[in-house]
Amino acid sequence: MSKHLHLNAFLMSVGHHEAAWRLPESDPHAHTDIDYYVKLAQTAERGKLDSIFFADSPVLMGDPGRRPSGKLEPTVILTAVAVQTSRIGLIATASTSYNDPYNLARRFASVDWVSNGRAGWNIVTTAGADAARNFGLDDTPDHRVRYEKAAEFVDVATKLWDSWDDDAIVADKELGIHADAAKVRKILHRGEHFRVDGPLNLPRSPQGYPLLVQAGSSEDGKEFAARYAEAVFTAQQTLEDAKDFYTDLKARTIAAGRDPESIKILPGIVPIIGDTEEHARELDAELARLISPEYARKQLAERFKLPIDELDLDSELPADLPTEDDIEGAKSRFTLIVNLARRERLTLRELIARLGGGRGHRTFAGTAVQVADAIEDWFRQGAADGFNIMPAVLPSGLDRFVDEVVPILQERGLFRTEYTETTLRGHYGLARPANQFDEADALVAAR
Amino acid sequence: MSKHLHLNAFLMSVGHHEAAWRLPESDPHAHTDIDYYVKLAQTAERGKLDSIFFADSPVLMGDPGRRPSGKLEPTVILTAVAVQTSRIGLIATASTSYNDPYNLARRFASVDWVSNGRAGWNIVTTAGADAARNFGLDDTPDHRVRYEKAAEFVDVATKLWDSWDDDAIVADKELGIHADAAKVRKILHRGEHFRVDGPLNLPRSPQGYPLLVQAGSSEDGKEFAARYAEAVFTAQQTLEDAKDFYTDLKARTIAAGRDPESIKILPGIVPIIGDTEEHARELDAELARLISPEYARKQLAERFKLPIDELDLDSELPADLPTEDDIEGAKSRFTLIVNLARRERLTLRELIARLGGGRGHRTFAGTAVQVADAIEDWFRQGAADGFNIMPAVLPSGLDRFVDEVVPILQERGLFRTEYTETTLRGHYGLARPANQFDEADALVAAR
After folding, report:
1. How far apart are CA B276 and CA B365, in angstroms?
2. Pfam families recorded for this chain (chains A, B) (predicted)?
3. What DSSP state is assigned to residue B404?
4. In whole angstroms, what is the distance from residue B199 CA to residue B183 CA?
5. A121: part of which helix (H) or strand (E)?
6. Could you tell me which residues come within 8 angstroms of residue A270 by beta carbon, excluding any fewer than 6 positions away?
7. Do B113 and A83 touch (CB under 8 A)?
8. What is the ipTM of this complex?
9. Which of A58, A65, A200 sits opposite B102 (nearest CB)?
């Protein structure tokens, strides 16, 4: 555990709470307004946060009546933000199931160039038949197959990113040689899922390649993270579960032959910050009141594969539920939600209210000091290298976090007061990756 | 022919001339510097141009020693430019052979949102085995098949862009309904090449969808343009050829059931502007001297499918060449180059110098007045609705065009002195497309 914790702001339209858009303060058209996202990013940068993050799936999720739906493509958002900020890290989700490695590797390398080394890629395999049916498939591929494909995808992408040596461009005007062709190479990848010749049509980017992020907590997901991820987002409801996850993933990372410090684990937290604890609870209750239960009930029915008529809002979850093995995506989230409902004996109405803010992530309503305490506690107890901050309401929730919680963490010596690095990896204390094909790099790595 | 002509600036690293990077004034690292592109775009906007354009192919083209190679992904460039300009139109090439319609439709719609209605898509099918081998194929699909797939791709994309009615978002905070689900629809496309359910995960964008641009001048290309394109880039060496092309494509557009004014034809011109005609010719000659003949000779050998040893730089093109039918991509460009070489009896050395600036596009060296005369002449003679300006050297060539040629065209009443519209289609005098699924729109269209 390093001295400083890391903070990522996970941004979602007008907030993570599904009813946030119904508050008087919220602009229900903000989700297609790039200036809105730029301002959020500038707020995060003002707070010296490590990074901002946008989730994504190539499908319209759920009923468009429920909340602002449809999103600007996140690498487009990152690019617009990149040229209007200077330090904040920029992470976006993209799917390994529904992209070509060549195109995606190039797009993230382009964002890394445009941001001068601040790009990060949250690697997801994308569950769900709805997404599959936007790409010529009838249903989502099997979970295990998706992860095998993801591993090969990352392998191809890193080869493409390394297909140019860092010093390939010689720019010799006199001799008329722009790049040394011997330092630009085909990768000739021949795998189970991909055949890609290369080289990439872009020189190696400032970070070498984007920070690799991962957010799946299933068995397959954890194994994948241990091999590839440099930062991990995870949903954890209790300190005990979070510590178990942290210890387990660090051990898996060591087992994969990596330094446990080379992977940063960031549980999600949905802070609802009030002037007093009571005020925070009122805000939370107001948001819960604004949830339309029918949309939420329908989603629960789909998640638990139960007929919607069997879901009584004033009863607990039925005893007979599918197991994680029956679920094709968000496996660990399924288990987390079942455990939460059982542990606290929640009615469906109460469960819906608990899920409204963070969809299974830990919601915490309190004062700025209490939020800072909650963060410090988990950090000091070895449950986290930092946190994935998921404001229930935006922009006000991020403003309050940056203006009220961050200064407390800074006063306690837990968080940077100024940026000391310029790249996303720099913020997370991670090294720039060596080029797997560069002989000089290889010599250094072998020592 | 309308009263005003249209001007697009086709931007390519430090200029279209392959040796431009060797000039003392050129920054050989500019091609990965986003600030450089933003400044070029701001210059074009200062000149009140209709649009800027970036070509693209998902492959590293040619020898990286020859010139700055590798490019930032062009929708990334457009996005960075979009948030730092307010009026200039933003066009980028993307391939229908090596993208998924869902992802590409969404990305261009996102750029249209971010730019407030200034996005354009240059639709290409992408020739060449090298590109194919970055996407799991051994060779490029047949020319005809590529164009059939492109037509279906555009069909899918327009359906996705129309999958939300313009007024789908009701944002009723009181009732808790964000979008009217009845105005957001699956497209359930089932075709020869694509199966896509939809809807798009993004509301309909300011222009409805991006301006559709096309640049292929083969038979298949012209038929495709007549059906779909709203702007066409074309390479024409002589006034006669340009008039023939213009007349032919307008007739094909009428035959396809469209208004001939709904398609704007823009031949390329590579202006080399000097203080005097002699000065301009000196600049042209200096650039020609800086071409490394071996790179160019190798490219000619590939283009003409001849052994490189048979290409003598001081002789004319060999008599025995393949025909356009033997060429899989850039068919019309192949014929144009053969005709140019034969017509002017050029040695290979001379041909290489002629191709160095615009790869077959018309190069014109002269004073600003002479360039303006050349533009006015073709425009008034019915050979063009406007021009695709391809500066041989950047940024200086664009600066001179904007500062010296544009004012002459404005004085002559041929070009706007201020923007009167805010969208890319507006600049080109084109109507916002109706939504094919919207009943109110359909009623208007049927009148």
Report:
1. 10
2. Bac_luciferase (PF00296)
3. I
4. 10
5. strand A119-124
6. A16, A17, A357, A358, A361, A362, A363, A364, A390, A391, A392
7. no
8. 0.95
9. A58
For residue B322, what are the CA distances in angstroms to A301, B143, B241, B328, B354? 64, 16, 22, 11, 21
Look up residue B331 and give its two tokens: 């068919």
Superfamily of domain B6-272+362-446: Luciferase-like domain (3.20.20.30)
- Compare CB distances from A68 to B63, B178, B197 and report the shortest one's residue: B178
Are B349 and B279 contacting, i.e. CB atoms less than 8 angstroms apart?
no
Shortest Cα distance, chain A CAs vs residue B375, angstroms:
33
- CA dist A210 and A106 (Å) reads 11
Name residue B41's amino acid: A
Measuring CA to CA, how many Å separate A270 from each of A9, A11, A223, A355, B104? Answer: 10, 11, 26, 11, 33
- Which residue in the block uniquely carries the two structure tokens 């941001």? A115
Q: Note whether B103 contacts A99, CB cutoff 8 Å.
A: yes
Separation in Å, CA of A173 to nearest CA in chain B: 5
The phi-psi region of residue A70 (left if phi > 0; otherwise alpha if psi is between -120 and 50; otherwise beta) is left
Closest residue of chain B to A31, computed from CA coordinates: B202
Say whether B106 and A136 touch across the interface (CB within 8 A): no
Asked if B133's CB is within 8 angstroms of A195's CB, the reply is: yes
Which amino acid would we find at residue A4?
Answer: H
Alpha helices (runs of H) in A381-436, residue ranges in sequence order: 396-400, 406-411, 424-427
Exposed e or buried b per residue across B300-331, where buried means at least 16 C-beta atoms within 10 angstroms of its C-beta: beebbebeeeebeeeeebeeeeeeeeebebbb
Question: What does residue B388 show for φ and ψ, rounded to 5 degrees?
Answer: -100, 100
Domain boundaries, chain A: 6-287+358-446
Q: What is the pLDDT of residues B114-165, one digit of tens each?
A: 999 999 999 999 989 999 999 999 999 999 999 999 999 999 999 999 999 9
Structure tokens at B334: 């192949």
CB atoms within 10 A of CB B74: 22
> Do B136 and A199 lie within an 8 Å CB cutoff?
no
pLDDT band at B243; cut points 50, 70, 90: very high
Residue from the list A59, A69, A72 with its beta carbon closest to the beta carbon of B179: A69
**pLDDT at site A359:** 81
If you classify domain A6-287+358-446 with CATH, what class do you get? alpha beta
Distance CA B274, CA A384 (A): 64
Angle at CA A72, nearest 5°, toward B95 and B34? 65
| Low-confidence residues of chain A: pLDDT under 70 | 1-2, 440-447
Residue A233 near residue B63, CB atoms below 8 Å: no
Please tell me the predicted confidence (pLDDT) of residue A447. 46
Beta bridge pairs of residue B214: B123, B232
State the Cα–Cα distance between residues A345 and B85, nearest whole angstrom. 55
- pLDDT tens digits for B60-99? 988 999 999 989 999 999 999 999 999 999 999 999 999 9
Q: For residue range B190-204, what is the model confidence (pLDDT) as tens digits?
A: 999 999 999 999 999
Task: Give CA–CA dist A354/A336, Å, rounded.
Answer: 12
Taking CA–CA distances from A27, the nearest residue in chain B reads: B171
The phi and psi torsions of A271 (rounded to 5 degrees) equal -80, 135
Check residue B378 and give its pLDDT: 98
Query: Average pLDDT for residues B226-237, to the nearest whole number?
Result: 96
Query: How distant, in Å, are the alpha carbons of A103, A159, A163, A198, A442 from that of A184?
Result: 18, 12, 6, 10, 16
Is the preceding omega at residue A210 within 30 degrees of 0, hence cis? no
pLDDT at residue B447, rounded to an integer: 46
The residues with which A195 forms a beta bridge, in sequence order, are: A190
The tokens describing B272, both together, are: 């080399």
